[in-house]
Description:
Distance between the termini: 62 Å
Shape: globular
Amino acid sequence: MRSAFSVHGVAALLALAGCAESAVAPTGQDLFARHCASCHGLSGTGDGPLAETLKTPPADLTALARKSGGHFDESAVMAIIDGRRAVRAHGPREMPVWGAVFEENLAGEPYGSYTALLHDRALTDYVKSIQR
């Protein structure tokens, strides 16, 4: 004899498993490959297939810490990725405003703005991981 709990419990677990599978967040490396590699290259050195079409060559993202005396400035990198806190003195930016792009892509999703911020964070962590 089957108990109602076990049948309903199994059904609930299967439903949750399906939700969890579809809600798996992309990794920083996945986001980088999808959104950054076309300019910065898969290695992050600025040699992506679109790099030569840009007015300003893309940064070598593997050298950020070295250029800052060995310090990786996470806040600065997140601000650049997010892009909504532009520095007027830096002039116009060719890099997309990823924070706004992520929010637009996640519009209507539960916690879309928060998830967009997590994407910024995941990208920052990935860029930190490729420092040489």
